[in-house]
User: Fold this.
Amino acid sequence: MEVIKKAKELAEEIVKTPEYKMMNTSQEAVANDEEGSALLQDMELLQQEYMKSAQEGESEEELKMLEDILQSKHEELMGYEPTAHMIKSKATFDRLIKLINNEITSGITGCAADDCAGCSGCN
Assistant:
């Protein structure tokens, strides 16, 4: 199918972007950084604990305490240059992907992604 071929071409172009390259490089750097990897693992475990606690109906006090711990861990991640760089480069790449998705959606619906007020495809 031609559309699948075009999707593969788009993927090939995306991996050539500076946003993708920066994100990939920063992820590799953190993967090879013991402290950065440990920080990310701690954050993931805390997030899982929070989700489990929320699903199990823990008290507001317990959830607030976990939120505070998560916030503190996030600040620690952002205070460590390799993980901060990785998080920022991932956010930049995510913005690029969002722009690409908006263009695809706009092409399908005929609706300009930045002005959907009168668009029947979005409303």
